Structure formats: C-alpha cells, structure tokens
Amino acid sequence: MFHNRLSDSNPCLILFEYNFPVCGPSQLYFVDSEGCSRRVRKIDSPQHSEVTNLVGSCNGLLCLSFPLIGGSSVPHSLLIYNPFVGDAVRVPPANRFLNQLEVFGFGFHPRTGQFKVVRIVWHKKIMKVVDPALDVEDVDEEFATVYESTVQVFTVGTTEWRNKGAPPPQLADELGPPEALVEGSLHWLAVVGMGGVDPIFGIISFELADEVFEEIPRPPCQRLVSRGYNLSVLNGCLSAAGLVDAVHFDIWLMKQYRFKESWEKQFSFDPYFPSGGPSFLRRFPKVICAMKNGEILLQYNYSALVSYDPVGNRFKTLQKSGLPNSFQALPFLPSLFSAKATMNLQL
C-alpha cells in the first residue's frame, strides 16, 4: 500500500550537497515535492560515515561512497543504504591499481531481481616493450607505461567483484557516472564519432541481467547530438534533452526502448533563466523527472529547482527552506524494506 501510494504521487528527491571548492564529506537531503512541508530535510549519514559521493538511487536504496580507513590509492568504498529504515550493507572494496580513475553505476534489473554495482576503472600498467609500434609513453629502455581499462560488476548479496573485460572504446576516461536507468540498463552519454570538427554524442548502455554493453539509437536530431545533451527517465522512457540552438531546448522520449523509430520530440521551449549563478550555466538545465500534473522538473546550475508547465509554457522556481547552495538532485521512491532484506528479494 505504501509503495502504491508513492508510485501514484509526485516523485520525491534526494539531494547530494556539493562542497566546492572545499573537499570533504557532504550532506544528504530529502525533498517531498508534493507534501505540505516546504522544508528540505537532512538525512543522517549511515554508520557515522563521511559520505563523499552519491553513486545512484534505485527502488528506495542509495549507493553511497565514503572514505576508506587507512592509506589507499582508492579514496573511497561503497555502501548500499535505505535512509528511511536506516540500515546499510557494505560493498567490499574492489581491486586497486596504480594512478587509477574510476566511475560507478548502481541499478536493479526486474527480470533477475538483483541489485548490481558496475565499476569502470582506468589505470596504468608497466610492461615490457615487445613491439616498437606500440603506442606508449614514458619509455624507459625496455619498459613503458600503458593505460588499461576494466569493467567490474558486484551483485549485492554476494562477496566478490567479477571482471567483465574491457569497456567499449567510446567509454573514455573522461566518462562521468551513468545518467539513466531504464529497462534494467544503465546509460552513459559518450562520444561515438565526429561530424566534421564537432563530436557526435551517442548513448552506451550496460544491461544488468546479461552484463553486456550496447549502443542505443540516439535521437534523430543532428543539432542535438552534435552539441551534447543529458539523459534522464521520463514516464518510464529513456529521455534525451539539450539545447539545439541559441533559443530552443528540446526534450525527446524513446517511447519503445531500443527502437530508433520510437524517438519523439515531446517538448520544445525557450530556455529559462533563473536568477543566481553564472549566466552561461543557467542556459543548460538538467531534466530531473516528470511530475504527476504533467510538469517537468528541471535543475539549473546545480542549484535551482524549476518546474516547467508545457501547457501554459510557464516556469516556477521551487521555494524550499534549507536548500543547499550547490547539489545533485535524483528522483527517489522511498521504501520500507531494509537494505539487507531487499538483497534477498527475487521478483
């Protein structure tokens, strides 16, 4: 009953506070976009840990990173946390490499009933030079430093990470976290080609059941894909949104997943300019989610939350007391299951 009631209401939000330019632990916040409270509520950190990043939100669970105790080349480990129940499950640390860069994703697949954490790591490797044509740097006599990338998967409820080989070449080390979880697949925005001097942005997915990468057809809008866009989930569909020229912000929906012909331009409006923050950042909103009344919730400059009414073509800034100055916003559906109990659910 609790789940059904929440599913039929406006989505809640989890906010992760950014502490730029100061590095250190950050605060989590909860926002009920439909409730009578106009305040933003702080969420206690799990197990008195110092949260450093919000990896993802899925089915009422959060995947959080926090500092490891003791010296390590990896600055953090992971927790799966239900902020409503208050319990957490620790994810064992993955293998550590020399001078590594890493990105995590977190999601659930309805067919397998499993939560999984995906890790893509780029790292240096010292090897003996056997091919003079090898693309290497820092050559020192017979040895050189080369760069490798690895995909690792952790199924929540198990004890070990599993290696899945190298990621697709489009997923370079500048990659950010996945932007959307749709149909049990995580989705990244990546450069998949060049259109003259401009990069062409495409969509790379990782299917959590079979654990394979795939390139998803991108929207049929050349101006959009050559300028870059952001991904989200709207009404259960994969969405791509971005600025197509100086005066239009378009939102596309893939009505039938994986079918290129099902992309439809759902909304198009002039960019809104909320007050505060650098003007060039205010032009590029991030789509957060769809509201029950048909409005679209947007975030500007990692600070302002704005609802867009496509019928009246109106914008309204959400006024919430206690909103942090800079934050990441994610849709969140609260759950009464404990984190430990949820690991054993099989749908």
Automatic annotation (TrEMBL):
<dbReference type="InterPro" id="IPR050796">
    <property type="entry name" value="SCF_F-box_component"/>
</dbReference>
<dbReference type="InterPro" id="IPR013187">
    <property type="entry name" value="F-box-assoc_dom_typ3"/>
</dbReference>
<feature type="domain" description="F-box associated beta-propeller type 3">
    <location>
        <begin position="42"/>
        <end position="324"/>
    </location>
</feature>
<protein>
    <recommendedName>
        <fullName>F-box associated beta-propeller type 3 domain-containing protein</fullName>
    </recommendedName>
</protein>
<dbReference type="InterPro" id="IPR017451">
    <property type="entry name" value="F-box-assoc_interact_dom"/>
</dbReference>
<dbReference type="Pfam" id="PF08268">
    <property type="entry name" value="FBA_3"/>
</dbReference>
